[in-house]
Structures are given as structure tokens and as C-alpha cells.
Design brief:
heterodimer, A: 334 residues, alpha+beta, Enolase-like, domain 1, five-stranded antiparallel β-sheet, four-stranded antiparallel β-sheet, 13 helices, 12 strands, B: 223 residues, Ubiquitin-like (UB roll), DNA polymerase, domain 1, 2 domains, 8 helices
Chain lengths: 334, 223
Amino acid sequence: MKIFELTRADEPRQAIAAAAKANTAQQGADIRFIAGGTNLVDYMKLNVETPRQLVDVNHLPFDKIEALPDGGLSIGAVVRNSDLAYHPIVRKNYAVLSEALLSGASPQLRNMATTAGNLLQRTRCMYFRDTAMPCNKREPGSGCAAITGANRGLAILGTSEHCIASNPSDMNVALAALEATIHISGPKGERSVTIGDFHLLPGNTPNRETVLEPGDLITHVTLPPPSPGNRSLYLKLRDRASFEFALASAAVVITADGGKITRARVALGGVGTKPWRSMEAEGELTGQSATQAVFQKAAEAALRDAKPQSQNGFKVELAKRCLMHALKLVTQTA
Amino acid sequence: MSNQDETPERPEADTRSAFGQSTRRTFLSRLGMAGLLTTAGPAITTLAQRSEKAEQELSAAAKDAIPVTLHVNGQKHNLRIDPRTTLLDCLREHLHLTGSKKGCDHGQCGACTVHVNGRRMNSCLCLAAMYQGDEITTIEGVGQPGNLHPIQEAFVAHDAYQCGYCTCGQIMSAVALLSEPVGPEDAEVKEFMSGNICRCGAYQNIVEAIQSVRQSTNRQKAG
């Protein structure tokens, strides 16, 4: 691990001022915020992340989960994943988020990991993790070893010729289906970005993963009020029963009336370079009956643009079946 | 690395070996040195250069050392540490609390599990300097010979270990699990223990040990 200066922010403006001096924003930057550290310290040990300064943001007043007047929910940036997963409002109104969080990592890691940290969680691509290998995300222009290498676990949606790294987060997939908004405070003031716009596709710049600019600090995430009568579910498929990243996962939020789907929100995990909202699948479901044939159409629509690599062709069918099964389970009980 | 400013508030004679005596730990570290000396002959120049480099790095680290106060098992410790020091390394190398083990050092195996303010965490991914003011509990603070925690007693009674390397982490997770929202089934216990890997495969007996404590606690509550 490279030496760094450890500093602590007691007020948001201190954190913003410190990070505004960075050359790039957050992921891979020379000045980084640290909260739970589960992802960052891991990557610092591998010299994948080599910040010269860490700003401890654990003491900022962003540790609350609060019901909003409109019926929605505000989730502080440093709320721990375990506290969020077990919060009574989350369990009652946003079951898909609780399930996604509890399907991720281990109890120890969930006690450390935070909302904002999870949003910025970096890929598990083995070439990104290994500084001896080329990786455009870690070292722009060095090439992608994954495209011709071991790519079984990597993305089939949203890839580019420069990067096929999958976003590893479960939480982000649930937030995509719940249409969350990310609230940011930065050197130029405050702004909010929808979860769909927050993560960037790799394109020609896979090193740039989010819209964050130097100094930008995530303060909280808000969820809109739950759609009346909806049922939601997170289904995760992986190589082991627990403590493993998704090969494919589906977050579904469905409102049905007399067997007819009136509103559908669908997002996929484990298959995309970012949390993968599928409006194509939602379009196939809305206004239709909850039948296997309709679920099949939705799954086909969600994976229509999939570009499998040499070792992950199985993910196309796996993701389809994952989504179809999730839809079956969530409408069975509706 | 030495830490001259360390001021533990109780003599640590019980955790450190007295001069001239050997514990398993000091014996193994001497063995390691002897091994190095007997096999390092031909590459002596390189090694010397390397040690010079290591010394420079060490002094750089000493230059960057920061004062840190940690509360561990009810005791306060004032230390000077390199900011890179993880909580795990700080506990083991500075405070000589060697119950917490280093397995993978990447938060994947759970051997390093400790409690911070009553919640279990992977101490290998914690930077020690970020945990000042927090109450840290290690296996040494959970129970001692003659005064074992019920989970420790159950691990003995149910033969819930083989080589023992993962055991301290398993016990720290199991103790924390008792106050977490875990359903009554074995499958739930397995899910909640998924962050602790056991290479010997003592999983079945670990689940039995944990369930025996939970069931006897429930019986006491019912009675």
C-alpha cells in the first residue's frame, strides 16, 4: 500500500474543499473520501487505488434514514448497509432494496459498507484487480485483457471495445428499479442526479465511472413514495449459495390489478457495465397479463442487445430465466 | 516496527513471553529467522541492498507515523502508527493481541473479525486510525480460560474446530449473531456465518454449537 495522509472531515464543506483539489473525481483519484473502506482499502492493498490523501467522512451528519413528507425515504450517505436493510420502512415499502442488500457480501462487510460507498463500488474484474495486467479502467490506453481473457463473470450489456467490466453492486440494481435519486454537494453547490444518469457506460473512457466531479460529495439518496399496491423482489443467481457476486440478478417492482400488470420497473445485475434498468422489459409488461408468455417477451426484450464474450454466453439465457422467475414469484403472491 | 509511545495501562506480561522463555509465537518467529539465514547465503548482496531499502522505507514510515488512541477490551492505548496500519495489524503487532487472525487480508475469510461498538467487522479492512473513540472488542475480551463465553464453551463441547485458525473469527461472528435478526433455522445460521470461512470444514459442528447456545438462551427466556 502506498503511503497517504489521513484526514478527517467534521463538516461537509471541509470534505468538499479537500477533494476539490483532486485531479479526478473519487474512483481512482489522488484524493478520496473513505467511509466503510470495504472496497477502497481492499483496492489500496492491491495498489489499484493509490490515493495520496484520504478524507474520513464517517463523522459527517449523513447517518440518518428519514421518512419524507411525500411518503418517500431519504437515506444518508454513510448509513451502513445492514442498518438500511433492516430498517422497518425499507422492509415494508422497499422490500427489493432490503433483499438486495442482504444478498450482498457478508454480515461483517454490511456492518461497515455505506450507501455512498456501495454506489461507488468498483468492478471485480480480475484484470482490473491485477496491476500486472493491462486494463483501460485502471490505466487508460493500456488495453483490455478481459476481452480475450477470463471473462465468465463479466458484462454482456453496455460493454465497449475498451471495457467489459460488470458493476458488482446488488444495492444499485434495487435502486435502479426503485428510481432513486442521488443528492450531491460540490464546489459549485448542490444538485441531484437520477440513478440512471449517475453511472456512466464505459465507452472510450472506462476509467470514468460516474458523473461525479472533483470535490463532489454524495450526501444522501432519496426514494420516491412506493407505488400503491406494488410488490417487489430481488432474485440473485451466483456460483455459491451465499457471499458471492451475482452472475445474474433481477430487481422487479410490479403493481398488478386483477391479474393485469399496471406498472412495472425492472433492473438487472451481474450482466451490465452499470446497474441495468430495462425500460424495454417494462414496456412489454405494462398493460399485459402476468403470464409466462408475457414474462418471456419481457426477458427477450431486456437481453435483445446483449453482446456475450467468449466465456459468458450462458449469461444471456441465465439473465432471461432470472428475470422470468423473479416476475413469476412477485406476481404469484400479488 | 516499534512503538515507543505505547502506554498500556496494565502490564502485558501475561500476553508477552518473558526473556529466555519461548512461546509458540516467539519460537516460530525465531525459526523463521533461522530459515532465512541458512538459505539466503548466495544472494547476500541483494539482500543487503534490500534491507537498506527496507530500512529507508521504515524510516519513511516512522516519519509519517501518527498518534492514535484506541480503546480495546476496556483498556486505552496511546500509540504511534503508520496511517496504513489496519486495525488487525495494530491489534496483533502493536498490542500483541494475536487472537484475531490474518487469513486473506481482503475481507473474504472472516478470521480477523472483531466487534466495533458491539458490531462485527473485518478488522483487516479497517484503518486503525479511523477507529479512535470506538469500543473495540477482540476474542481476548470475550472470555478467558476459566471464564469462557457460552459460545466458547459450546465450541469446545461441540468440537466446532479442527486446526483452530479460523476459530477466533468464527466465535466473534457467533457472539455477534446472538443479537442479530437471525431466524431459528440452521439455514439462517449458515447464511449469517457465511462471512467466516473454515478450511477444515467444521461448519456442521459450528452450526450445532451456535444453535445449542441459542436454544438454551431461549429456554431460559421461556422459563
